[in-house]
Amino acid sequence: MVHLSPASQFTIGSQIRVEVAVEAPGETPRTLWFQMDGSLAPSPEAVADALFPIGLMIAMVTDGTLEMASPVSARLLDQADKIQDILLSWHGSK
Q1: Which pLDDT band, with edges at 50, 70 and 90, does 90 fall under?
Q2: Chain centroid, CA 85 distance in Å
Q3: Residue 93's pLDDT is what?
Q4: SS (H, E, C) the chain
Q5: Would the pLDDT of 27 be above 90?
Q6: Whose CA is closest to 24, among 61, 49, 70?
Q7: How many Å is the Cα radius of gyration of the chain?
Q8: What Cα–Cα distance (Å) separates residue 85 from each residue in 24, 53, 57, 67?
Q9: Is residue 62 within 8 Å of residue 26, measured between CB atoms?
Q10: Which one of 22, 50, 60, 81 has the lowest number of neighbouring Cβ atoms within 10 Å?
Q11: With contact defined as beta carbons under 8 Å apart, do 84 and 60 qualify?
Q12: Of 43, 56, 46, 75, nearest to 2 (Cα)?
């Protein structure tokens, strides 16, 4: 199972940094982060939706399931199969 922790947001000068811990089977836990201008600070819901496809890719590569600590929009979840199809069309299967 791939687990994404709740995201944390930090202000660094005029920037916002978003961090999430990623745990995947057989892998060392890692921190995934992105940074942007503070005026673009995303809502927690937007962060969860942005992280979903990334977590989904990791889960697909490790043949695992994705567990996110933060809720993802129902509309995005409804499109999970299409997202997986798109990712597979870009990179193929393992």
Answers
A1: confident
A2: 17
A3: 62
A4: CEEECCCEEEEECCEEEEEEEEECCCCCCEEEEEEEEHHHCCCHHHHHHHHHHHHHHHHHHCCCCEEECCCCCHHHHHCHHHHHHHHHHHHCCC
A5: no
A6: 61
A7: 14
A8: 21, 12, 11, 19
A9: yes
A10: 81
A11: yes
A12: 56
Assigned token pair, 70: 């933060």
> Based on the number of CB atoms within 10 Å of its own CB, is 51 exposed (0-12), middle (13-18) or buried (19 or more)?
buried
pLDDT in tens, 29-55: 999 999 999 999 999 999 999 999 999
Encoded tokens for 55: 């977590």
